[in-house]
Model the fold of this input.
Amino acid sequence: MTEPLRISVTGVGLVTSVGETREATWAALRRGERGLFPIDLFDTTGQRASLGGAVRGLTLESAPEEQRGGAWSRSTLLALHAAREAMEQARLDPRRIRVGLVVGATTGGMFETEARLAELHVRPDSQQAQLEMLAHPLTSTGDCLDETIGPFWQVRTVASACSSGANALLVAANWLLSGRVDAVVAGGTDGLCRLTLSGFNALAAIDPEPCRPFDQRRRGLNLGEGAGFLVLERSTRALARGAEPLAELAGWALGAEAHHITNPEPTGVAAGRIIRAAMVEAGVDARLVDYVNAHGTGTPLNDLMETAALRLALGDELARIPVSSSKGQIGHTLAAAGAIEAGIAALSVHKQAIVPTAGLEEPDPACALVHVPGVGRDARVRAVISNSFGFGGMDSALVFTTPGLAPARHRRGRKVVVTGAAALTPRGLHGTTDCGKLLQRDASEGPRDVTLDLAAHLDLARARRLDRSSRMAALVVGRAYEESGALSGPREELGVILGSSFGTISASAAFMHRLFAKGPRFASPADFPNLVPSSPVGHVSIYLGLGGPVFATSDLAASGESAWAQAIELVEGGEADVVAAGGYEEASDIVERSLAILFERSAERQSEHQPRAEGAAAVILEEQGHARERGAKVLAEVAQVLTWREHDASPLLPLEPPRGHAGAASVILPRRDRALEDMLARSTWRGVPVRVCEGACGEHDALGAAAVAAAVSELAHRRIGDALVLGVAPGRGYALRLVAP
Amino acid sequence: MLRVFMAESTIRAQIKELIVRELNLEGKDPASIEDEAPLFGSGEGLGLDSLDALQLAMSIEESFGVRIPEGDEARPIFRSVASLAEYILGAKAAQEGVHPGGGSSAIPA
Done:
């Protein structure tokens, strides 16, 4: 039996519209101070509503030289402040112990990219503007933080819209339980930008007045910006280091409503299930809960649904437990919200006090809760629940307690197998049987676009909102799940993680061009929900009815890899029994133009610039016992997973040598890579035949998903017995060993 | 004096095209949408939802220059293609300063 584990929160960093530090924010929250003012970061002429919670003092202009330009963005700057503050409180030195970083993100560098799009709108031939379109991949925040306050041994970027920040904390907790790292800095960040203001206005979701969560006159949310980061570490390590635990992260849960891309599932059943699951996970009964920091956006639908969900989860105890929403003071900070509010929850435990719901004057009788109007107060706080519900119905709940209150947990190291695979390439849709074809050494001179009639393979009545990316993803995830047989059972527990690099860039650019051309009044409500990085995975969960863990990851050309690494962690750690892991990339003229300019200007060009292809692939990862119980056919077994960053000098050192004779083993890469092959030549896998997917699939950033699908197919058919799938992008790498069952 | 009124039937046809295009009802023939069929709610008619209502309102304003009020006032207007057409006709007539049933201004069809 392994050592009982507890996860301590040893640092909290907050940057919000009411305070640029943790203590300033907390003090302002307690006073009931509101930070919602007319947005002046950009022109809001013609916007239906334009109050927001901007962080006034922090601008890129006032940042040190090295934090302006390049990949730096408003969102990243906010993240830096909060992460640094959390690490300082925890007295955490990442040079001395292994520290991981998880960043929840949604808009990323959109604020900066909008300026480029505005330029391109009037000067379509501006090469500089075109080039700078690529300056802010979603991973920028993680990478900038790694450079500035790292080094971090493992870095992950997650996106689940409004629950991204909470999601990041869940991922971090899982890392700690698995022992991958000694501590994790995890949280979320988002800056205000025209796209989100226009989009939420198009949805008529913003209150023109300061918002009023739970109030019967509430008309919507106010947008905010900010960042929240927590330092999480195993309690025993924290104590050994002399770090004071502020609170304990006792439990967590995430899942999908599988209902609608913008509207919450009105009965609150799905959200209630997740809140309950977090409590069960924590071993915390409703009688121990003394406070709920709600998602509480102030929209008519959310607050109603959340009340119902809390009633389902807390039962009669709800009549005793105060519930408040900080969004009445700091606004809805999107990807930062789940983390900022988790920080508030942890602080409420540490300080034994609760904070109010500003803007609440006439409680809606349908939101029958113990409200906290006006100002905060001291209170006995044993356990706190923090809720976050994201677009597309990606819900999460976190439970914080006083140290030692809840039962300790034990590490779960479960065995993961693969039970399904599928891929979509310019050559068509492949199931498990023919994913091996992805390794055929055809010259990549075939079509680059997926020519399959996607609409013909989907139920159009339910797929009409799915854009191209979502359709490709739905096809491969659906096919992989069908092959696994898991769809014929309950879907409430089935999850899906999707990785993409360029993701929704095209759609975002189109939305902004329309905005520039026609003004905010004619921004398209139906298009906006498709712009966030987690839209495709949200659509897939709705289309297939998947209610398990659902979110998106991103990691440049290793985006496919980031998804399967994440999915394996979830299954291995016991967060879910079955999770689909996939990747997708869509052909895009805008991206192509930018890449062509980048190529032209790059010093070392070794070959002709090849336009990218498009495609998608997915595999089904499942806990071994679960697969056995339902009589599923096991295609391959996960033997080993490694992830690394640039500062790791010998990333393949822990790699086990191939089993059996060399002929039965294969190295499978998404694309040829000199540096990777050099690394292999110095490892125990030298001499093992190397095969790539690029020939059959064309090149794109989610090829890592295809590589795994191909490996699984080869193993399933006993063409090989041992496969090493490797994928890299500048500064990061992933390795997956799969063996035949 | 030439009097040309925007025919209600033309407006209905345009609304149906708008519905199919803006709400991405792929493969649906606009002419197959019945004038009086309920647009919203599950079970009957087209089964559109609140997100569709927002999209439709925006695109109607874009195409016809007519603004549909928000909230509960909008419900009866959105009931069917016929009710939408009636509302648009009335609003356009009001813009031109005439009563919908008859009048003296020329409205290009």
Notes: Residues 60 and 68 of chain A are 6 Å apart (CA to CA). The mean pLDDT of chain A is 94.
